[in-house]
Design a protein that fits this description.
Blueprint: H1 5-15, H2 20-24
């Protein structure tokens, strides 16, 4: 499965719009939490 970072960032943007900037940073992103 290919992971689209844009889709992931959009997903988190919908979950936490106020925090989306920090969540988009992939170094702090944990795929296992999806």
């Amino acid at each position: 499965v290919k992971i689209d970072l844009k889709s992931i960032s959009n997903y988190f943007y919908l979950l936490r719009p106020s925090n989306h900037k920090s969540l988009i940073q992939t170094e702090h992103f944990d795929i296992s939490k999806l």
